[in-house]
């Protein structure tokens, strides 16, 4: 019996445990809170990721360790490697945890990025805004997620407010200023690399965010083959440079037909949730196959899929359950403003069918505005 240890017990760990059950796998989840939602399906070690005794107990009970939470301290991940195989490796994790290291790697690999500058002081911020121009975004280098730890600077008049909001973070987690990309689309590549270096990617996904949080994903993205190939080759270069094992996601902006890299997620990703029903092998199962050294599964799509995120509270399930191709995921979390509590995936064999399903479900859910941009894209 193989036990997979997962650091972080959120919905990603929960869906990993569900995907691993048919493979006969056992799971052990470590999280700092006892009511983490993956704990409903797997035993838990409750403890801080820097607590050596909790980490030692975790390591003693698992055959391999991986992550649901990308901000597990890289030193803790490194400490674990002396006791148990850890995938992805701590260097890959550390790179993806720091927007500066991540963007520097993108640039070194020839992957285009928006202009960026490290910010340690208010003077540097003034100079960097002058250099990069407005609009631009000040972001924390570490620990940001769902658009948290970001301030949009629309004109130089906003610099003072940006520094008020984030300046104190400069000494703690570091800051980076990025040029604002007036993108036409946001895309992501979800891909997997095995222990033997085999690389596979799912079809490109288009994503829509609201207030910095993912709202909807559509796969396959309606982009030409050349752009899809470029995006996938960027992800492959990164995976190879980091000797990455497991699933990763590369977030990209598309502007004037050019791709610019935003960030790398060193884990299964929200924009890949559609793969559970929309692909031959889900990102969760392929992540497990990769970290266990098993053959990777086919990443081919089955029709077309749209994923809708439920933020704050779950809507009425029946509106989705009554749809052919409608799939419901309730993470078993307490409702809370801004929290990802579940998602739905709507799958159909053609764009026309998917439009019809989205329009019906959108009305029944009272989520017309959430489905609208996806419908517009599908209508071409
Ligand atoms: P995630 O939850 O994806 O990890 P995050 O907090 O790490 O989010 P980003 O992905 O950097 O943050 O930003 C969230 C969203 O904000 C992006 O998906 C995009 O919509 C917008 N955004 C971020 N940076 C830029 C930029 N430089 N130009 C334009 N929009 C941006
Ligand atoms: Mg991020
Ligand atoms: Mg992001």
UniProtKB/TrEMBL annotation:
<feature type="domain" description="ATP-grasp">
    <location>
        <begin position="103"/>
        <end position="292"/>
    </location>
</feature>
<dbReference type="GO" id="GO:0005829">
    <property type="term" value="C:cytosol"/>
</dbReference>
<dbReference type="InterPro" id="IPR016185">
    <property type="entry name" value="PreATP-grasp_dom_sf"/>
</dbReference>
<dbReference type="InterPro" id="IPR054350">
    <property type="entry name" value="PurT/PurK_preATP-grasp"/>
</dbReference>
<dbReference type="Pfam" id="PF17769">
    <property type="entry name" value="PurK_C"/>
</dbReference>
<comment type="pathway">
    <text>Purine metabolism; IMP biosynthesis via de novo pathway; 5-amino-1-(5-phospho-D-ribosyl)imidazole-4-carboxylate from 5-amino-1-(5-phospho-D-ribosyl)imidazole (N5-CAIR route): step 1/2.</text>
</comment>
<keyword id="KW-0547">Nucleotide-binding</keyword>
<feature type="binding site">
    <location>
        <position position="186"/>
    </location>
    <ligand>
        <name>ATP</name>
    </ligand>
</feature>
<dbReference type="GO" id="GO:0005524">
    <property type="term" value="F:ATP binding"/>
</dbReference>
<feature type="binding site">
    <location>
        <begin position="178"/>
        <end position="181"/>
    </location>
    <ligand>
        <name>ATP</name>
    </ligand>
</feature>
<protein>
    <recommendedName>
        <fullName>N5-carboxyaminoimidazole ribonucleotide synthase</fullName>
        <ecNumber>6.3.4.18</ecNumber>
    </recommendedName>
</protein>
<comment type="similarity">
    <text>Belongs to the PurK/PurT family.</text>
</comment>
<keyword id="KW-0067">ATP-binding</keyword>
<keyword id="KW-0658">Purine biosynthesis</keyword>
<comment type="function">
    <text>Catalyzes the ATP-dependent conversion of 5-aminoimidazole ribonucleotide (AIR) and HCO(3)(-) to N5-carboxyaminoimidazole ribonucleotide (N5-CAIR).</text>
</comment>
<feature type="binding site">
    <location>
        <begin position="144"/>
        <end position="150"/>
    </location>
    <ligand>
        <name>ATP</name>
    </ligand>
</feature>
<comment type="function">
    <text>Catalyzes the ATP-dependent conversion of 5-aminoimidazole ribonucleotide (AIR) and HCO(3)- to N5-carboxyaminoimidazole ribonucleotide (N5-CAIR).</text>
</comment>
<dbReference type="GO" id="GO:0006189">
    <property type="term" value="P:'de novo' IMP biosynthetic process"/>
</dbReference>
<dbReference type="GO" id="GO:0034028">
    <property type="term" value="F:5-(carboxyamino)imidazole ribonucleotide synthase activity"/>
</dbReference>
<dbReference type="InterPro" id="IPR013815">
    <property type="entry name" value="ATP_grasp_subdomain_1"/>
</dbReference>
<dbReference type="Pfam" id="PF22660">
    <property type="entry name" value="RS_preATP-grasp-like"/>
</dbReference>
<feature type="binding site">
    <location>
        <position position="209"/>
    </location>
    <ligand>
        <name>ATP</name>
    </ligand>
</feature>
<dbReference type="InterPro" id="IPR003135">
    <property type="entry name" value="ATP-grasp_carboxylate-amine"/>
</dbReference>
<dbReference type="InterPro" id="IPR040686">
    <property type="entry name" value="PurK_C"/>
</dbReference>
<dbReference type="InterPro" id="IPR005875">
    <property type="entry name" value="PurK"/>
</dbReference>
<dbReference type="Pfam" id="PF02222">
    <property type="entry name" value="ATP-grasp"/>
</dbReference>
<keyword id="KW-0436">Ligase</keyword>
<feature type="binding site">
    <location>
        <position position="139"/>
    </location>
    <ligand>
        <name>ATP</name>
    </ligand>
</feature>
<dbReference type="GO" id="GO:0004638">
    <property type="term" value="F:phosphoribosylaminoimidazole carboxylase activity"/>
</dbReference>
<feature type="binding site">
    <location>
        <position position="99"/>
    </location>
    <ligand>
        <name>ATP</name>
    </ligand>
</feature>
<dbReference type="InterPro" id="IPR011761">
    <property type="entry name" value="ATP-grasp"/>
</dbReference>
<comment type="subunit">
    <text>Homodimer.</text>
</comment>
<dbReference type="GO" id="GO:0046872">
    <property type="term" value="F:metal ion binding"/>
</dbReference>
<feature type="binding site">
    <location>
        <begin position="262"/>
        <end position="263"/>
    </location>
    <ligand>
        <name>ATP</name>
    </ligand>
</feature>
<dbReference type="InterPro" id="IPR011054">
    <property type="entry name" value="Rudment_hybrid_motif"/>
</dbReference>
